[in-house]
Amino acid sequence: MTNNKYTRFFNNCVLTVCSLFCVVQTVRHGFPYQPTALAFDPVQKILAIGSRSGGVRILGRPGVDCYCQHESGAAVLQLQFLINEGALVSACADDTLHLWNLRQRRPAVLHSLKFNRERITFCHLPFQSKWLYVGTERGNTHIVNIESFILSGYVIMWNKAIELSTKTHPGPVVHLSDSPKDEGKLLIGFESGTIVQWDLRAKKVDFRIYYDEAIHSVSWHHEGKQFMCSHSDGSLTLWNLRNTTKPFQVTFPHGKIQKDGRKESCKPILKVEYKTSRSSEPFIIFSGGLSYDKAGRRPTLTIMHGKAITVLEMDHPIVEFMVLCETPYNNEVQEPYAVVVLLEKDLIVVDLTQSNFPVFENPYPMDVHESPVTCTAYFADCPPDIIPILYSIGAKHKKTGYSQKEWPIGGGTWTLAKTCVSNYQHHRNHLYYLPASKGGDTGDDDPFAVQMVSWCPQSRIFCVVGISAHIILYRFSKYDANTQIVSLEVRLQCETEDVISPSETENNPCFSETGPHSPQPHHQHASSPRGGTPEGMKDSCLKVKERSVRVPPGYQAELVVQLLWVDGEPPQQITSVDINSAYGLLAFGNCNGLAVVDYLQKTILLCMSTLDLYGSSDPYQRLTRSPRRNRQSTSGSTHTHRQEYLKGPGRKLSLPTDLKTDLESRENSFSRSRSSSVSSIDRDTKEAITTLQFGESFARKNDLIPTPCLWVGTSLGVVLLIPMSIPTDQEERMEESVTMGPGGAVLMLKGSVLRFGFLDCVGTLIQSPYEVWKDPNAPEDPDRPRRRKLVHFSPSSSQDTCGEGHLAVVCSERQAKVFLMPSQSCLFVHNITESSFVLRADIVSVCNSVCLTCFCANGHVMTLSLPSLRPLMDVNYLPLTDMRIALYLSSPTEIQRITYSQEMCDNLQEMLGELFTPIETPEAQNRGFLKGFFGGNTNTFDREELFGEAAAGKASRSLAQHIPGQAGMEGMKVAASGVVGDLARARIALDERGQRLGELEERTALMMTSAEVFSKHAHEIMLKCKDKKWYQL
């Protein structure tokens, strides 16, 4: 079939699929970055975490995880659940209150209230109340109607709360709470140490407390007769309402008495919780309060239970904590069972029902930031059995000492409909979070930092590339084993001052003998890592254990490949890597050249510079170096380094300037011509290997059948094909060596090559061959010898219908091309961008179609049809930094996943969990006759009567501005449409009923008419026969 026929064929096959694409955020993994607030719904059992960037993370049972974002991006100061109502109130640093609707899978803002003249400092929402108390920095207390989100005219001014004789301002409001004994009493705490109980009915003060130390928090006893305060001097004061002139008790939990008899100074107690229990002594839980005697102490959470004091040390500063209780009513015995501790970089839940206070095992994936993240990789369409196996192996490595009880945050539901199960399994994936090292913070020269990964899900072979120019190959096993890790050392360094002619490589098609420009391979086993090292060559950065090691089940290291130092200079970092389990080969490259390793035989097959890979097919005429430039000047120029910062928490990596895949070289590459008519290129210009891929292809134009090949892409836009000869028999494969040599095809593009892909002649994606996984440490069966099972996807399977060959898709920084192999003719070409460059590209399947997806440096996500390369979508999505159905590091501790498939967007609502579950609110306990008789019963009052517009009037319009939310408008539309639909259905039912009644009325009228006619005829007959005798009838 000719090229024109191919073009017409695929142009006719292209469908208008622009409606199949839509960029939408799906889920977010990791710990909320810079958390600021915490809230818990004791009935729904869901948790909310606010962050400094304006995000709100809502968590329930595992699988129920929702992320919301305030449009303003202001920090979240406080969160308040409308308990068992499916709503959440958030107070932000821009002095705005927001009401979130949680009764939908995607929470949205219903109302917003912006304060104009005062700053919000504290909020309190009583249980089963629609009136929210809002304290401000000026010391005033306002009241907001939750249903309408409008301010009430009822205001508690600070000058009315304090005595007239007081000359100083009490400070901002730091606490608000209603009395458990009487809801009509509001306790107001000011920062200066002043506490006021305000009678809401009488609009006056019941009592005032003036204390010398600043107040941070207040907590009531459930009977409403006592409350406890935490202060800035590390003290706790207990106040009795019978006598408010002085505290009933003052304690310094961590304050020691010094020799002079004075208490040592302590840190502030930022929060205290006072909770009661029927079966034991009350719990007093607080954060802070340690003495200043020792510097560098860890943050602590103290639990006082009777006479026992337990201090729990935390790894990170405490942001907020909250005690979880059995009842939502504040006037009942609380019965605490757990305490949630929100740290700056972690979330901990402590079990209070056990004396040793163990922590619950966190089921959420929140340890992404355990060490600085340097690499993320996303793998889709994994085998269905891989994830359960990984979970089962991970369960064996769990730490001991956790609480055996069920995770207490178990709200929401997460069930997938039958229609979505297959879709979810089709997009089943596994996400690797690769830390820099096992430690916490890492230095600038951490040799263990992970740079990139390569994983074969089918064979479960995992390959990790480190920043120290080393590669570690892992195999997966369900059994532990004693193994000795093999080490291979490679000298991948070019002699840049040597000059060669093309004739020197023409007679060297195979690489059994290396030319003067080829890097020299040097390898040995771990038993002698130093032996045989040439003079002037430094050992590798990392040392591999020389003895056998015991490895647990899971991924077990098998091979380490390290690039050696040359002349005291470190090796260049690895820029690309690919592994193929069917071939048993590992390929990697950097700005110096390419190396191929046979990991089955533990040998190095190829180690050559990029220039030598061309042989006589070099499309550039490279100038030789000036003889006046010596080794010293070369060494000084080629090893100039600059600092590049990876987007991560405190992570800084040093990358070489001559690496052509960084952003600076990509920008500079725009001015360099990529055409084959380039007259000359300086020999100092290093050509980096930017991408590699193994596959079945045609290396030469005259090839008749596809053979194993290695596709090599460089930073100068050149594509090289290296054919390979691999023994097919298993025994021969382990004994005979794999041969590979140059002389393959050379293709050209603009910009650095980023991605390869292969399609058959009808446009179906061809997968790379792989080996089916078999446990290497499983007991051998003598009746069934272990043999490798290979799966090949040959492009020759469709030759009978569409002719010979296959299609090769190549994408670079600026261009995409589709080549017909083996003729190497270009069928389609598309210039992706002229003003920017492509950062990531991938070939994906969407709705049974194949497309090329690209992400550019200017934030645009584009999809192109394959193989015709027609634009299907172009959306500006600037936050994205890594591509594949797709994910990006949204913060140093969070990874955001997005989808650009409309099908996934349509099914997303069913895949997300339900935050709100209809649950009946528990009934309040009956306190009994005696408690009610002696005044122990709670006094209720009608807040609507006090705070409503009829009694309190309207608030000043300049004080706050009501902003209807988008969800509120949509909700109104939905509600309106629902009401209209109900009215329409009722009208139809009435019409049907009226019609039936009309028919019944007509039938009744007919019967009445018939009866009247019958009566008339009967009367006529009666009159006619009235005077006649019987015998005259």
From TrEMBL:
Give the species. Neogobius melanostomus (round goby)
Q: What biological processes does GO assign it?
A: exocytosis; Golgi to plasma membrane transport; protein transport
Q: What is this protein called?
A: Syntaxin-binding protein 5-like
Its main subcellular localisation, reduced to a broad class, is membrane
- A single Gene Ontology molecular function, please? GTPase activator activity
Bias regions of kind Low complexity — which residues? 670-680
Q: Note the PROSITE patterns from the entry.
A: V_SNARE, WD_REPEATS_2
User: Could you tell me which CDD domains the record lists for this protein?
Assistant: R-SNARE_STXBP5
Q: Compositional bias (Polar residues) spans?
A: 502-511
Q: Where is this region: Disordered?
A: 501-538, 618-682
Tree of life domain = Eukaryota
Instruction: List, alphabetically, the Gene3D superfamilies matched.
Output: 1.20.5.110, YVTN repeat-like/Quinoprotein amine dehydrogenase (2.130.10.10)
Could you name the Gene Ontology cellular component terms for this entry?
A: plasma membrane; SNARE complex
Question: What keywords tag this UniProt record?
Answer: Cell membrane, Coiled coil, Cytoplasm, Exocytosis, Membrane, Protein transport, Repeat, Signal, Transport, WD repeat
Q: Which InterPro entries match?
A: Lethal2_giant (IPR000664), LLGL2 (IPR013577), V_SNARE_CC (IPR042855), WD40/YVTN_repeat-like_dom_sf (IPR015943), WD40_repeat_dom_sf (IPR036322), WD40_rpt (IPR001680)
Family (UniProt) = Belongs to the WD repeat L(2)GL family.
Its annotated compartments are: Cell membrane; Cytoplasm
